[in-house]
Protein backbone atom coordinates (compact mmCIF):
# COMPACT_ATOMS: atom_id res chain seq x y z
CA UNK A 1 0.00 0.00 0.00
CA UNK A 2 1.35 3.42 -0.94
CA UNK A 3 2.39 5.57 2.01
CA UNK A 4 0.55 8.79 2.85
CA UNK A 5 2.73 11.79 1.99
CA UNK A 6 2.84 14.51 4.65
CA UNK A 7 4.45 17.91 4.08
CA UNK A 8 5.32 19.15 7.58
CA UNK A 9 6.38 22.77 8.19
CA UNK A 10 7.80 23.64 11.64
CA UNK A 11 10.79 25.82 12.54
CA UNK A 12 11.16 24.72 16.18
CA UNK A 13 13.87 22.03 15.91
CA UNK A 14 13.08 19.86 18.95
CA UNK A 15 9.34 19.62 18.25
CA UNK A 16 9.98 19.23 14.53
CA UNK A 17 12.35 16.30 15.06
CA UNK A 18 9.92 14.55 17.41
CA UNK A 19 7.01 14.87 14.99
CA UNK A 20 9.14 13.92 11.99
CA UNK A 21 10.54 10.79 13.64
CA UNK A 22 7.16 9.77 15.08
CA UNK A 23 5.32 10.03 11.76
CA UNK A 24 8.08 8.09 10.02
CA UNK A 25 7.73 5.30 12.61
CA UNK A 26 3.97 5.25 12.05
CA UNK A 27 4.46 4.61 8.35
CA UNK A 28 4.05 8.04 6.80
CA UNK A 29 6.23 9.41 4.00
CA UNK A 30 7.18 12.85 5.35
CA UNK A 31 9.12 15.90 4.22
CA UNK A 32 10.00 18.41 6.96
CA UNK A 33 10.65 22.04 6.06
CA UNK A 34 11.58 24.83 8.50
CA UNK A 35 11.32 27.94 6.27
CA UNK A 36 7.94 29.05 4.94
CA UNK A 37 9.57 30.62 1.90
CA UNK A 38 10.97 27.25 0.79
CA UNK A 39 7.79 25.21 1.01
CA UNK A 40 6.27 25.66 -2.45
CA UNK A 41 9.36 24.24 -4.14
CA UNK A 42 8.71 20.92 -2.37
CA UNK A 43 5.47 20.34 -4.25
CA UNK A 44 7.18 19.66 -7.58
CA UNK A 45 8.99 16.54 -6.38
CA UNK A 46 6.97 15.43 -3.36
CA UNK A 47 3.24 15.98 -4.21
CA UNK A 48 1.91 15.67 -0.63
CA UNK A 49 -1.46 14.17 0.29
CA UNK A 50 -1.77 16.55 3.25
CA UNK A 51 0.06 19.55 4.74
CA UNK A 52 0.70 20.18 8.44
CA UNK A 53 1.71 23.80 9.05
CA UNK A 54 2.96 25.78 12.01
CA UNK A 55 1.74 29.40 11.97
CA UNK A 56 4.77 31.25 13.31
CA UNK A 57 7.36 30.61 10.58
CA UNK A 58 10.32 32.63 9.28
CA UNK A 59 9.94 34.68 6.09
CA UNK A 60 6.43 33.49 5.18
CA UNK A 61 4.00 32.75 8.02
CA UNK A 62 1.55 29.86 8.07
CA UNK A 63 -1.45 31.97 7.10
CA UNK A 64 0.24 33.34 3.97
CA UNK A 65 1.64 29.94 3.13
CA UNK A 66 -1.78 28.32 3.48
CA UNK A 67 -3.36 30.88 1.15
CA UNK A 68 -0.65 30.24 -1.43
CA UNK A 69 -1.03 26.47 -1.20
CA UNK A 70 -4.81 26.73 -1.37
CA UNK A 71 -4.65 28.88 -4.53
CA UNK A 72 -2.56 26.19 -6.25
CA UNK A 73 -4.12 23.07 -4.75
CA UNK A 74 -7.76 23.81 -3.85
CA UNK A 75 -8.59 20.30 -2.59
CA UNK A 76 -5.51 19.61 -0.46
CA UNK A 77 -6.22 19.18 3.29
CA UNK A 78 -4.20 21.55 5.49
CA UNK A 79 -3.86 21.19 9.28
CA UNK A 80 -2.58 24.10 11.36
CA UNK A 81 -0.43 23.42 14.44
CA UNK A 82 -0.14 26.47 16.67
CA UNK A 83 0.35 27.81 20.16
CA UNK A 84 -2.14 30.59 19.40
CA UNK A 85 -5.30 30.13 21.46
CA UNK A 86 -7.57 33.07 20.61
CA UNK A 87 -10.75 32.41 18.64
CA UNK A 88 -9.86 35.04 16.03
CA UNK A 89 -6.63 33.14 15.33
CA UNK A 90 -8.65 29.99 14.71
CA UNK A 91 -11.04 31.85 12.40
CA UNK A 92 -8.12 33.46 10.55
CA UNK A 93 -6.65 30.02 9.95
CA UNK A 94 -9.87 28.71 8.43
CA UNK A 95 -10.28 31.86 6.35
CA UNK A 96 -6.78 31.29 4.96
CA UNK A 97 -7.87 27.86 3.74
CA UNK A 98 -7.04 25.51 6.62
CA UNK A 99 -9.24 22.45 7.04
CA UNK A 100 -8.30 21.58 10.64
CA UNK A 101 -6.55 23.19 13.63
CA UNK A 102 -4.57 21.63 16.51
CA UNK A 103 -3.43 23.64 19.50
CA UNK A 104 0.01 23.07 21.01
CA UNK A 105 0.92 21.10 23.03
CA UNK A 106 -0.55 18.06 21.30
CA UNK A 107 0.05 14.33 21.27
CA UNK A 108 1.32 12.40 18.26
CA UNK A 109 -1.76 10.17 18.60
CA UNK A 110 -4.04 13.18 18.18
CA UNK A 111 -2.08 14.39 15.16
CA UNK A 112 -2.28 10.98 13.49
CA UNK A 113 -6.02 10.76 14.12
CA UNK A 114 -6.53 14.25 12.69
CA UNK A 115 -4.47 13.40 9.60
CA UNK A 116 -6.42 10.18 9.04
CA UNK A 117 -9.73 12.00 9.53
CA UNK A 118 -8.81 14.71 7.01
CA UNK A 119 -7.76 12.11 4.45
CA UNK A 120 -10.98 10.18 5.06
CA UNK A 121 -13.14 13.26 4.59
CA UNK A 122 -11.39 14.40 1.44
CA UNK A 123 -10.98 10.89 0.07
CA UNK A 124 -14.63 9.99 0.58
CA UNK A 125 -15.71 13.21 -1.11
CA UNK A 126 -13.48 12.46 -4.09
CA UNK A 127 -14.78 8.89 -4.27
CA UNK A 128 -18.33 10.20 -4.14
CA UNK A 129 -17.63 12.54 -7.03
CA UNK A 130 -16.30 9.64 -9.09
CA UNK A 131 -19.17 7.33 -8.31
CA UNK A 132 -21.75 9.98 -9.14
CA UNK A 133 -20.49 10.31 -12.71
CA UNK A 134 -22.92 7.61 -13.86
CA UNK A 135 -25.84 8.77 -11.74
CA UNK A 136 -28.40 11.49 -12.24
CA UNK A 137 -26.30 14.32 -10.84
CA UNK A 138 -26.68 17.50 -12.84
CA UNK A 139 -23.72 18.57 -14.93
CA UNK A 140 -24.54 22.20 -14.18
CA UNK A 141 -26.87 24.15 -11.94
CA UNK A 142 -28.16 27.62 -12.83
CA UNK A 143 -28.24 29.93 -9.80
CA UNK A 144 -29.49 33.33 -10.90
CA UNK A 145 -26.74 34.86 -13.04
CA UNK A 146 -24.31 32.16 -11.85
CA UNK A 147 -23.64 28.66 -13.14
CA UNK A 148 -22.34 25.94 -10.83
CA UNK A 149 -20.61 22.79 -12.12
CA UNK A 150 -20.80 20.42 -9.11
CA UNK A 151 -18.69 17.63 -10.61
CA UNK A 152 -15.63 19.85 -10.92
CA UNK A 153 -16.38 22.39 -8.15
CA UNK A 154 -16.44 25.32 -10.57
CA UNK A 155 -18.58 28.42 -10.08
CA UNK A 156 -19.04 30.78 -13.03
CA UNK A 157 -19.91 34.32 -11.89
CA UNK A 158 -20.92 37.21 -14.18
CA UNK A 159 -17.30 38.39 -14.18
CA UNK A 160 -15.01 35.42 -13.45
CA UNK A 161 -14.58 31.70 -12.77
CA UNK A 162 -14.07 30.52 -9.19
CA UNK A 163 -12.44 27.14 -8.57
CA UNK A 164 -13.97 26.04 -5.28
CA UNK A 165 -12.11 23.96 -2.74
CA UNK A 166 -13.37 20.45 -2.05
CA UNK A 167 -15.19 21.55 1.06
CA UNK A 168 -16.65 24.71 -0.51
CA UNK A 169 -17.96 22.57 -3.36
CA UNK A 170 -19.50 19.99 -1.04
CA UNK A 171 -21.14 22.71 1.07
CA UNK A 172 -22.60 24.46 -1.97
CA UNK A 173 -23.95 21.15 -3.31
CA UNK A 174 -25.59 20.47 0.03
CA UNK A 175 -27.21 23.91 0.11
CA UNK A 176 -28.47 23.86 -3.47
CA UNK A 177 -29.72 20.26 -3.63
CA UNK A 178 -32.41 21.06 -1.04
CA UNK A 179 -34.05 23.71 -3.22
CA UNK A 180 -35.98 26.13 -1.01
CA UNK A 181 -35.93 23.78 2.01
CA UNK A 182 -33.97 24.37 5.19
CA UNK A 183 -30.62 22.59 5.35
CA UNK A 184 -30.00 21.61 8.96
CA UNK A 185 -26.71 22.85 10.39
CA UNK A 186 -25.95 19.54 12.08
CA UNK A 187 -26.56 17.63 8.83
CA UNK A 188 -24.03 19.86 7.04
CA UNK A 189 -21.42 19.35 9.76
CA UNK A 190 -21.84 15.58 9.82
CA UNK A 191 -21.91 15.12 6.05
CA UNK A 192 -19.28 17.67 4.99
CA UNK A 193 -16.96 17.82 8.05
CA UNK A 194 -17.53 14.40 9.59
CA UNK A 195 -18.55 15.63 13.07
CA UNK A 196 -20.31 18.57 14.73
CA UNK A 197 -17.56 19.74 17.10
CA UNK A 198 -17.21 23.38 18.13
CA UNK A 199 -14.18 23.90 15.91
CA UNK A 200 -15.93 22.48 12.84
CA UNK A 201 -18.96 24.61 13.66
CA UNK A 202 -16.80 27.75 13.57
CA UNK A 203 -15.24 26.45 10.36
CA UNK A 204 -18.72 26.16 8.83
CA UNK A 205 -19.41 29.83 9.71
CA UNK A 206 -16.27 30.83 7.81
CA UNK A 207 -17.27 28.81 4.75
CA UNK A 208 -20.79 30.23 4.70
CA UNK A 209 -19.24 33.72 4.74
CA UNK A 210 -17.00 32.73 1.81
CA UNK A 211 -19.96 31.49 -0.25
CA UNK A 212 -21.91 34.68 0.46
CA UNK A 213 -18.96 36.70 -0.82
CA UNK A 214 -18.76 34.56 -3.96
CA UNK A 215 -22.43 35.30 -4.74
CA UNK A 216 -22.05 39.03 -4.08
CA UNK A 217 -22.48 39.92 -7.77
CA UNK A 218 -26.16 38.88 -7.76
CA UNK A 219 -28.37 40.66 -5.24
CA UNK A 220 -31.14 38.12 -5.87
CA UNK A 221 -29.10 35.27 -4.37
CA UNK A 222 -29.16 34.95 -0.59
CA UNK A 223 -27.95 32.40 1.95
CA UNK A 224 -30.22 32.94 4.93
CA UNK A 225 -29.19 31.85 8.43
CA UNK A 226 -31.99 30.42 10.55
CA UNK A 227 -30.62 30.55 14.07
CA UNK A 228 -30.74 27.25 15.88
CA UNK A 229 -31.66 25.36 12.71
CA UNK A 230 -29.58 25.87 9.60
CA UNK A 231 -29.60 27.65 6.22
CA UNK A 232 -31.76 28.49 3.23
CA UNK A 233 -30.25 29.04 -0.21
CA UNK A 234 -32.61 31.41 -2.04
CA UNK A 235 -32.67 32.69 -5.61
CA UNK A 236 -35.35 35.40 -5.70
UniProtKB/TrEMBL annotation:
Key words of the record: DNA-binding, Phosphoprotein, Two-component regulatory system
Keyword Phosphoprotein in record: yes
Sites of 4-aspartylphosphate modification: 54
DNA-binding region: 138-235
Gene3D superfamilies: 3.40.50.2300, Winged helix-like DNA-binding domain superfamily/Winged helix DNA-binding domain
InterPro entries named in the record: CheY-like_superfamily, OmpR/PhoB-type_DNA-bd, Sig_transdc_resp-reg_C-effctor, Sig_transdc_resp-reg_receiver, WalR-like, WH-like_DNA-bd_sf
Transport recorded as keyword: no
UniProt domain Response regulatory: residue ranges: 5-119
Domain OmpR/PhoB-type: 138-235
Pfam families: Response_reg, Trans_reg_C
Protein name according to UniProt: Response regulator transcription factor
Species of the source: Marinifilum caeruleilacunae
